[in-house]
Amino acid sequence: MSQLDMLALNKQTDQGEAIKTEIRKYSRYWIWFVLGIVLTVFAGYLYLRYTPKVYKTSAKIQILNKSKGLELPSAAFVLNRSDINLDNEIEILKSVRIMHRVVDRLGLTTRFYEEGNVLTTELDHLPFGFLTKLNDYSGLNGKSYTIKLTSDAFEVIRPNQTEVLVFPDFDSSKTTHTLPFELSLSDMDKLPQIKDKVYRVRFISKKSITSGLKGAVGVSVVGKSDLLQLSYAGQSKSKSERILNTLIDVFDEDGINDRQDVSRRTINFIDERFLLLAQELDSIESGISDFKQKNNLVTVEADGQLGLNQRTLSENELFNVENQLILSDLLKETLLTPNAESDLLPANIGLSNISVNDLVANYNTLVFERDNLIISAGQNNPSVLILNQKLDDLKANIMTSITSYKLQLEASKQQLMLKNRESIAKVYSLPAKEKTILEIKRQQVIKQTLYLFLLQKREEAAINLAITEPSIKIVEYAMSEGTPISPNSRNIYLMAILGGILLPFGIIYVWHLLDTKVKGSEDLRERNSQTPIIGELPKVKEEDLIFSNPEDSSVQAEAFRILSSNVDYILPAKPNDGGKVIYCTSTIKGEGKTYVSINLSLALSSINRKVLLIGADLRNPQIHTHINQEKHKSGL
Asked: Distances from the Cα of 184 to the Cαs of 122, 131, 590, in angstroms?
């Protein structure tokens, strides 16, 4: 084995011995480690016992696609991708508007607690009747009322007051008071269970509750799907489940209302037109009746039947053209209505122009997209401004298309009117008065047909409004976990055990770090390996300090025999067998000079050595106490 290998082996041996030494240094204090673990585990138990339990509640929903009707497979369909923007849906779901509705529906501005000896637990509701009297609790923000049940009454303490309000017979409505709520207990069988218990009612402003609820509700996307997972943590499982289920219902209702908006606007548009058409029809019918009575008109002459048939055919064509003109005017009037750019346009009102119908459908689609973006991003978002510009451009295109279409209709109308005049010429024998009657009736038929057409469209819109599909699908209703997420008993106990180990370890480490005393030969060798150690002496009782019996076999006797042998070995030889001098000294009083000197002298004399013990401590000598001499005797 080479010298390098020997050095490496010695180094590994030294490291192993150092590790063993450190382990022995701490292992002798094992009782403190056991005591520390017991105390920290007990502290962890107390923490778990008196800390409110927080449970996690979660639910899952699927966002449904808002597209209508059947669609041909597209790239998104083939690649199994959805065109739903889940980020927008999450922002809407966590918006202040939605949270406000949840707070109002559940009455979350009022919170209930049950006070224990140590732990105060939040409740979903009180075990007795509680009825609020105010609609706005902003003036009571942060105020708490304490309620206690005795054997025959409610006792209520108002905020910042010591006066106790007593309501006998468990009914506060029978007593005049200024409390913002009423209390009652109708089921007296509950009294033994809740008697002498203390409950607390706390009022919080709607703004604070809404802000807190928005921050407490978590929404995340499940993988790469259209599913959203909602989570909420609270002390009351039933309250957390009600919050999430209500949030889902409110969000679903909001989505349905958005989808029903087009149908509602179509119905409102048609209802407005009904009033005008009804007035026009009444005027036409009254005009026909007055005209016939004034001119004594009853039937048409038989000899004009053939001409009338031809005229009827051209009038039907003219009727269709005029009907289209009226519908175009109605749509154009809607476009010119103030603030029309912020409203949806009526769809499918009967125009035969495909281009205009497509532009109207595109306009409504952009309105939906802009409104959804405003909810999540605000009015001044650059995307919203771009969509507004697109809507203005699209509106201008619709106006241009309607104008072009009306010009075509007017040209067709002129041709049909010319054709109609030719037909009229063929029936010149008909009375002029009858011609006027027919024109009036034609206007009546146009209005009636338009009225029936709009009525049909209104029914279609009402059906679409009634059968609007939901905006979400509930995959899992709110459900709470059985074990609390906070405090985590496993982690608490692990931390307690770790603390029980580290605390004594740290104390012992610091104590050893600050300890500068030499406790054994290892300490001396560690700091100065060059100094030889000739012996180690045990610590003995005061009455056993002197080693006087040469035949003694005690630990002290053996230690001094070893010391005497080592001293005799290391002392240099003197010429002519002269005496050898051993000088025994220390830095301060009480470190063992006298103890070592006397016993070393006795040990050397026990092996037939001649020993002269000289006490040279002139200030505080101690040898005289062991040899029965006076302290003040002259000399050394």
From this structure: 20, 9, 83
pLDDT at res. 434 = 64
Nearest to 208 by CA among 289, 140, 267: 140
* Stated pTM of the model: 0.52
174 φψ region: left (φ > 0), alpha (ψ -120 to 50), beta (else): alpha
DSSP-assigned beta bridge partners for residue 132: 181
Say how far residue 604 (Cα) sits from the centre of its chain. 84
Strand partners, 221: 228
Q: Look at residue 170 and give its three-state secondary structure.
A: coil
d(CA 527, CA 52): 54
Range in 6-20, 491-505, 574-588 the model is least confident about: 6-20
Distance CA 492, CA 524 (A): 43
pLDDT digits (tens, 9 = 90+) for 531-578: 788 888 887 766 566 766 767 777 887 888 888 888 878 887 777 777
Report d(CA 269, CA 271) in Å as an integer: 6
For the chain, give percent helix, strand, coil, nearest 5.
55, 10, 30
3-state secondary structure labels for all residues of 590-616 = CCCHHHHHHHHHHHHHCCCCCCCCCCC
CB atoms within 10 A of CB 553: 8
